[in-house]
Amino acid sequence: MNYDVTVIGSGPGGYVAAIRCAQLGMKTAIIEKYNSLGGTCLNVGCIPSKALLDSSEHYFKATHEFKEHGIDIGKPKINLKQMIQRKSEVVDQTSGGVEFLMKKNKIDTYHGLGSFVDKNTIKITDAEGKEQQITSKNTIIATGSKPMIIPGIDYDKKRVITSTEALNLSEVPKHMVVIGGGVIGVELGSVYARLGAKVTVVEFLDSLIPGMDSTLAKELQRVLKKQLGFQYHFKTKVTSAQTKGKEVIIKAENSKGEEIELKADYCLVSVGRKPFTEGLGLEKAGVESDERGRVKVNDHLQTNVSNIYAIGDVVQGAMLAHKAEEEGVFVAEALAGQKPHINYKLIPGVVYTWPEVAGVGYTEQELKASKRKYKVGSFPMRALGRARASMDIDGVIKVIADAETDEILGVHMIGARAADMIAEAVVAMEYRASAEDIARMSHAHPTFTEAIKEACLAATDNRALHV
Ligand code: FAD
Ligand code: NAI
């Protein structure tokens, strides 16, 4: 065999798996069909979206908050070309970093489409059509996902777009209709709303970010409407989107069965993503997938073919970069004979709007449905000195603990820097802390983290100090 392990796909799942395999002494190869390494996350996902979220946030602050801070800069102007250019530079640097890591760890990188010839042989076809074959004792499938397009949507990539095109627009839309009020819809909707677009969200369910705790959804809806003028059509299902010249006509049906028609110059389709296995030749290796096209795996992320594993967006579970990374490490360590573990309930979810939204553990809806007895402690950001100092008073932190044992079951937050603060909750929950444990720990003053302590005090015995 040429390799102990071959990883197909260089996203956060694949490249992290490759590094860990190499660290553990395995001769490792990685195959990526594009020239640039890093997958969806680095090239058209996490990193570029956060770069644009950051730039648009600066613009929003300059136009809406600087004056109050006592900073007069005249009327700021958007240079979208430069904003996109900076984003692309961040992507190139980050992808270059992955290339460096592959070399540093002596991982052989192949550029081209990887496809199974049999369970130990993989063919690599490069952009010019040149083929080569390698053999591998084990293979990790990490081929990720692609945007989902629903029937009736005329996805022309110019006016009816997905997140991929939305990261490269050459003008700020006048009116952007966002189909799907999930994570991509609110993040990229925020980018263009901050730059001046009118944003209308059409969502099939009854709130934004429906998978998260409903307290967060309610607060996010309120803030995005107040701050950026977001408009919503909830319980409304889009049935078609067609481009006519420079206009997109979107048709939808609400819960009363009435038809709604919206007109926009851009329509962002963000209705979820689907696993990507096209051209991979799963059938040649005998690897099974499920009814949703995900590669079927057992608890050890092993497919029905014992030397082939699969991780990340292409398998079941949350489609998140850090989930993919944990799975990459898990498979590498399992292959090395170790006994790794992933606590899926403690994989945090974060939405990078402003205020940021983050949650880990059980939501209140889930606990209600399971009939488990719980108690809730909440603390509003507006009661926090640090939040007042920076004018970030929107948001709330909610801690849910077991009614009898006080063990923290879920932490849900919306507020400034929630994306980073959720790590405290993950650590606490991994060590099975009680709400009182956190309530008794010193949190630096003035910081946003004091809101976590206060929410834990509230959950303990309704002992919050500052409300
Ligand atoms: P991917 O990153 O999709 O990588 C798969 C790679 O495999 C791709 O490079 C693909 O070209 C390659 N490939 C596929 N088939 C083959 C083949 N046959 N041969 C060779 N190569 C192949 N997640 C977060 O946690 N935080 C965020 O902030 C976040 N923001 C996001 C923003 C956007 C706009 C989008 C779209 C996604 C975002 N995500 C975020 C989700 C995140 O990008 C994915 O969960 C993550 O990239 C999944 O990693 P992966 O390794 O499973 O697959
Ligand atoms: P999503 O699953 O988060 O949201 C899709 C939304 O579209 C759902 O709320 C759904 O009810 C709605 N929908 C579906 N069909 C519809 C229709 N016909 N009409 C109206 N609404 C409809 O998916 P999204 O936003 O596309 O993101 C894909 C994945 O990317 C997510 O699963 C997420 O994990 C990942 N991601 C993560 C980010 C982060 O961690 N910050 C950022 C961006 C993406």
Automatic annotation (TrEMBL):
Active-site residues, Swiss-Prot/TrEMBL: H445 (proton acceptor)
Pfam family, one: Pyr_redox_dim
The protein's Enzyme Commission number: 1.8.1.4
Residues annotated for NAD(+) binding in this entry: G180, G181, G182, V183, I184, G185, V186, E187, E203, G272
Alphabetical UniProt keywords: Disulfide bond, FAD, Flavoprotein, NAD, Nucleotide-binding, Oxidoreductase, Redox-active center
Keyword NAD set for record: yes
Domain FAD/NAD(P)-binding: 3-328
Cofactor remark from the record: Binds 1 FAD per subunit.
Signal peptide residue numbers: none
Enzyme kind, highest EC tier: oxidoreductase
Gene Ontology BP annotations: 2-oxoglutarate metabolic process
Molecular function as annotated in GO: dihydrolipoyl dehydrogenase (NADH) activity; flavin adenine dinucleotide binding
GO cellular component terms, semicolon-separated: cytoplasm
Span of domain Pyridine nucleotide-disulphide oxidoreductase dimerisation: 347-455
Keyword Disulfide bond appears in the UniProt entry: yes
Binding site for FAD: K50, G114, T143, G144, S145, D313, M319, L320, A321, H322
Annotated family: Belongs to the class-I pyridine nucleotide-disulfide oxidoreductase family.
Protein name per its UniProtKB record: Dihydrolipoyl dehydrogenase
Lineage summary: Bacteria, Pseudomonadati, Bacteroidota, Cytophagia, Cytophagales
Gene: lpdA
